[in-house]
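Regression test case RT-17, inverse folding.

Input:
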């Protein structure tokens, strides 16, 4: 269930730049700095699990959870289009959920496209994000993206347009969701040919995107009601576009509630919410909004147990930091809560 991504380092490569993706992955997986020298479980269900890496001279080996299907796959696309309209919006909202989690960590993906949204199973129940190779923190430099999905401001020569915003990802995801619905390839191809690179053509590009959206979300396909939401997500103007994934989700959720089949789904969701939630369940922003549930407080990172594979591999590292030596600390350990007594004991950390 694990695949190895091999990244070869050449003399001219900036190793720190390439290892930036590892930093992002560890941030999302909530892996502590002292987890750095061993295989560690990923504490996030937003991305395909990253469990560790080895830097061996001029090659980086990254260990990732194996994923099989992505939304560029024709069979997945066909299965998706066979879903009822309200179920397709559920998939959209679930995808947005994954990017909400990423953005909470102040990370902008910057390269959202169908190929980078994957599935663990064909029933669309477990969606994962992959490829943080161009990701960076909000407010930092734009490092790149895919033609046809990246927003118009990233083509600008001005420094302002090269600053990463969450709105960058909103645009790219809006284009991706439109592409999943079909009849939108012409608009994507125009941008790939350089439509946004000429300032005078931006209005023309926007008109072509609008025309493509009207085809993708036509009334006869059952999702005409969400046209306005996707249109705002891919607006060429930053002032008009959603500036967060939460706002994108909120507006889409309003339309979802009015779709045929949504009412019965919501009733089941509310009923199920009364049950005890299983550990590790993905915190869904839009589902919590529906049932009026607040997000739980952040839980502390728990040190994972170490197995044979971890013991073999923990001597390797993708970083240059040396492990800290063991130190002795004096720690007060309560032994009688009623009398509030404590003893001191030497332990090694």
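Golden output:
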């Amino acid at each position: 269930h694990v695949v190895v991504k091999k990244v070869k380092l050449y003399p001219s490569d900036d190793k720190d730049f390439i290892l930036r993706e590892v930093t992002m992955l560890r941030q999302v997986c909530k892996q502590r700095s002292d987890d750095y020298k061993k295989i560690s479980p990923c504490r996030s269900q937003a991305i395909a699990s990253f469990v560790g890496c080895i830097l061996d001279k001029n090659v980086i080996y990254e260990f990732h959870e194996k994923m099989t299907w992505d939304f560029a796959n024709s069979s997945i696309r066909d299965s998706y289009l066979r879903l009822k309209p309200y179920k397709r919006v559920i998939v959209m909202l679930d995808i947005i959920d994954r990017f909400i989690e990423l953005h909470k960590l102040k990370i902008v993906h910057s390269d959202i496209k169908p190929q980078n949204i994957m599935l663990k199973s064909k029933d669309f129940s477990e969606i994962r994000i992959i490829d943080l190779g161009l990701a960076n923190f909000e407010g930092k430099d734009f490092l790149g993206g895919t033609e046809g999905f990246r927003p118009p401001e990233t083509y600008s020569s001005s420094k302002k347009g090269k600053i990463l915003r969450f709105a960058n990802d909103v645009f790219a995801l809006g284009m991706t969701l439109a592409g999943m619905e079909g009849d939108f390839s012409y608009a994507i191809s125009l941008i790939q040919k350089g439509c946004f690179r000429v300032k005078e053509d931006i209005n023309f590009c926007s008109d072509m995107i609008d025309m493509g959206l009207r085809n993708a979300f036509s009334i006869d396909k059952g999702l005409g009601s969400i046209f306005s939401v996707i249109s705002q997500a891919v607006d060429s103007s930053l002032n008009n576009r959603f500036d967060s994934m939460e706002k994108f989700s909120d507006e889409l959720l309003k339309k979802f509630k009015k779709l045929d089949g949504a009412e019965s789904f919501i009733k089941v969701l509310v009923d199920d919410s009364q049950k005890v939630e299983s550990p590790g369940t993905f915190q869904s922003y839009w589902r919590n909004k529906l049932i009026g549930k607040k997000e739980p407080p952040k839980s502390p990172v728990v040190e994972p147990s170490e197995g044979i594979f971890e013991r073999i591999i923990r001597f390797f590292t993708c970083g240059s930091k040396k492990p800290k030596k063991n130190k002795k600390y004096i720690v007060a350990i309560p032994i009688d809560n009623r009398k509030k007594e404590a003893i001191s004991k030497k332990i090694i950390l």
